[in-house]
Amino acid sequence: MTGVATAKTRFGPALLGIGGLVAVLVLVEILIRAGAINRFIVPMPSEIGASFERVIVEEDVFGRFWQTMKEAFWAIVLITIVGVSTGVLLHRVTLLRRATETWVAALASAPTVLMYPLFLVIFGRSALTITMMGFVAGLAPVILKTIEGLSGTRRVLINVGRSLKLTETQLFWKILFPAALPNIFVGLRLGMIFALINVVGVEFLINFGGLGQLINELAERYDLAGTYAAISFVVLISVVFFMFTEKAERWLTPAN
Amino acid sequence: MADAGKLTVAAPKPWADPVTAVRIVIVLTILLTWELVARSGLLYRDVVPSLLAIGEAVVKLIGQPDYYWHLGVTAGEIGTALVIGGLSGLIVGIALGGNRLLARAYEPYLYYLGPTPKIIFFPVMIMWFGVGPGSKVAMGAISCFFPIALSTAAGMRQIDKVLIRVGKSFRANAWQMATKIYLPAMRHPVINGVRLGLGVAIIGTLLAETKLSNRGVGFLIIQAYSIFDMPRMYAMLIVLFVLAIGANALVARIGGLDTIRQA
Questions:
Q1: Which member of A13, A118, A238 has the closest CB to residue B233?
Q2: A residues 10-49 closer than 8 Å to B (CB)
Q3: Superfamily of domain B64-262, CATH level 4
Q4: What is the domain extent for residue A89?
Q5: Helix A3-33 crosses helix B100-113 at what angle (to 10 degrees)?
Q6: CB-based contacts of A159: which residues, under 8 Å, 6+ apart?
Q7: Above 0.90 for ipTM, yes or no?
Q8: Is A117 on the interface with B (CB under 8 A)?
Q9: Residue A162's domain is classified under what CATH number?
Q10: Does one domain contain both A94 and A7?
Q11: Which of A155, A226, A237, B139 could be joined to B208 by an S-S link, Cβ 3.0–4.6 Å?
């Protein structure tokens, strides 16, 4: 295969994807200009593009981004500490694990974000509510993946540790925990994603905090182009965040 | 010996099972702690209502005809959202699963857009579909579209090539291929996608109802919050969680996912 053909195979689909996206934006622009789509409902893509600078400068997007990240960061810290330690506890106490593992799995699929009015009452309309919602949403996958990682440690590694007469603590820190780390990171990635989704979502719902509140405020002001630009910004941030965590997970997970 | 054999096959009493015993102890500890905190006055009054008050609220709630009307509105919105989001997800999933070029061009967008917080699109949905049930249906549809589309695309790619060759060797036309080969072969990934989609459709629809609505269960929850009727709010959350978990299990059972796990 020639170099040109290889490049075509490699970049062709990406170009098609971007081309399709651009074509849709151009079509929407034309339809709005032609009056086929109401411009008071859907702003022109060119208007949205132009409003990015205004939203970034006037609405202090980076300050709000920092606020959202702070809330998400503390949620992730709590998820890591509570999730990993609970996972370790459940792995060590088999009876407790057998009794509660299905409950943790049920928590993972339960619509916990709907409890936000309850958290509003308990913690008030504050950053703490947002952080705690992120924490609750991201906890279950970390617990489950920690248990899975520790339980999946190869028997031969544990036998090597025992033959070297390692104490239980040494066995945990030298063998079990390092072997479980890739799985723990998979759980942490899921937990981080759930936490970020819930942090931004609850910010929007309770009109408090960073990027979520920005979208709510712009929508309430009926700043159409600004609202679309802010939503695009949040989507962009989310996508970059997921791509980054995915790359980090691949880097941390050894190839089998 | 025969007696010993009988002893070993005798079914253990549920309370003698240590796992069940631990579960009962945990539940009782939580309930007892809750009641003690409720009576202690450590937290603001009514933030942690007594179990009796919550129990009464649950009984009162499920005895209210008005609640079922709101539940019907929410169920209708979720059902419509699942049909719209599910069908469009199925079509997009089949298109992506059946064409490598399209999959490589557009699947990354779906994959990365899937986990973004969908509720931020709600202002746009209000502008497009109004403040009524339309915008809630749209929220539910957007939420469930992504998992269903991605699961269908993955399921389509996992179909055994032998099945496809058998269909072609019988000279099956496109419709026959779709109904006799593709859809039955990817039933499980699709149902799994629908199960995931149902979960996020419930969340999307109810969150939208809590934000701006005058009907539905989400509206009732936020109404209970605004009048600080905590027992009612707890009762609604309990009933909602039970219904959500029940709906999830029902979809899994209909799709035969439970039988796969046992196999």
A1: A118
A2: 12-14, 16-17, 20-21, 41-42
A3: MetI-like (1.10.3720.10)
A4: 52-252
A5: 60
A6: none
A7: no
A8: yes
A9: 1.10.3720.10
A10: no
A11: B139
